[in-house]
Amino acid sequence: MPNPNQIAAKLYTCRDLLKTPADIASTLHRLRAVGYTAVQVSGMGPIAEEDLRKILDGEGMVCCATHEHGQMILKEPMRVVERLSKLACRHTAYPFPKGVDLSSEGDVAGLILDLDHAGSVLASKGMSLSYHNHSLEFRKLGGVTVLERIYAGTGAKHLLGELDTYWVQHGGGDNVDWIERLHGRLPLLHLKDYVINQENQPAWCEVGAGNLDFPKIITAAERSGCEWFIVEQDTCPGDPVDSLAQSYRYLVEKFAEMA
What we know:
Elements: E1 7-10, H1 21-34, E2 38-41, H2 49-59, E3 62-67, H3 70-75, H4 77-86, E4 91-94, H5 105-124, E5 128-132, E6 140-141, E7 144-145, H6 146-152, E8 160-164, H7 165-170, H8 175-181, E9 188-191, E10 193-196, E11 202-205, H9 214-223, E12 228-231, H10 240-258
Helix pairs in contact: 1-2, 1-10, 4-5, 8-9
């Protein structure tokens, strides 16, 4: 069963608290006090990789993964390799298909080729490229979802998965089914809960406070070889560190029950 040291915080959740190096140091200190020992780097202000690594090391934390600019991943993958090396990190994820028309056979085919190439470069250096989905990849093209096309058209060692549980649900997919499809190809999982708010609209909330069945999701992910369970919440009702703390406590409790 997974253990609490596999729980990471997606720093995009705290983006408003990460504008300067001093902000970054303060927020990482708070997250470490909650119990997090790992973070996914995303959404922060400018800071040298060496300085960020020093802060993480000082807190006894690691960078488990990053999100990098999509065009840099696709067109300059060696720059990604260099950045990950400085952060002592093996994983990154392609964040969003910006500028790609997912209703176009040509655009989708081009994206798949670029992802496969970039992933092969990272794999050759002992690193991994994963794909971070939203709900738009659940559109069908030729009767098949774009997400299915992406994974079918790339090498299993070239493009791995960073499934996002909220967006799988939002897109009409089944989280456990998708986790099982990516068996052995899912190092990263974004744990993000899904709730229907008072306006009858889907919304984000703390993990365990919504409708997703996380014990089933976590069990399936552990069986599929997931390395990192990354908590993310796009919007929070108050201090995002408080929301990440609530999610962390829920997950630690569930991990203990599942042991």
